[in-house]
Amino acid sequence: MENSGIIAGIVFQLGPLQVTNTVVTTWVIMGVIAVLGWLITRHLRMEPGPVQTAAEGVISAIEESIDAVAPGHMGHLLPFIGTLWLFLIIANLSGLIPGVHSPTRDLSATLALAILVFLSVHWFGIRTQGVKAYLHHYLRPSPIMLPFHIISEVTRTIALAVRLFGNIMSLEMTALLILLVAGFLAPIPILMLHIIEALVQAYIFGMLALIYVAGSVQSQQLTQQKHNEQIKE
């Protein structure tokens, strides 16, 4: 049982519930983000110090990205998209810590994130447009398109999970193989590769999530614009 627990990455067990290292690392990252957020916002000043300046720069960059994709919806998309981006960056980079594996190298973790994005797409769409108007867009341009819309929603969710899992898993495996072959002769290039790839994958996942959510909150606006253009013609 002990060997199988090590292979499965089980840290401890509560009755039938098995808590893996992915779950532990994920909760630690969530705790770190919460504590950092509390510490940074605890003493905000009109003349910010270096930490507050860096935090404001990160928030401003996220706000600009959201506003570029979903104009007018930055206010209510920022908490979700911003937190998702921060979590992914820390999660992807956590593999650099000796003895720690990135949660995103576990398919169950990336699938959970993808499902969260899937649910958020519908939540923001319904919140913005209302239930009837949002669900009606699945019947456009014809009700016959409903099965294809549903298939598209499911497949892009699976692709979102598998893409992140595959890239982070291959990144850590590649780094491990290079270390086994070359030893510690080339740690800096491996470190830089890991950092760059981790940041790129976090950006891609967060940007895709933003695009999907933006599509749900703007579908009614796009339909209205097309309708107005047809009337003008």
Whole-Å distance between the termini?
Answer: 72 Å
How many domains would you count in the coordinates? 1
User: Could you tell me the number of beta strands?
Assistant: 2
Query: Main sheet, how many strands, which sense, barrel?
Result: 2 strands, antiparallel
Structural class: mainly alpha
The largest beta-sheet arranges its strands as: 1-2
Instruction: Report mean pLDDT, rounded to a whole number.
Output: 82
Q: Beta-strand level of the residues, as a percent range?
A: under 5%
In helices, the fraction of residues equals over 70%
Radius of gyration: 21 Å
- Spans of at least 5 consecutive residues whose pLDDT stays below 50 are 1-8, 223-233
Shape: globular
**How many separate helices?**
8
Query: Could you spell the SSE succession in H and E letters?
Result: HEEHHHHHHH
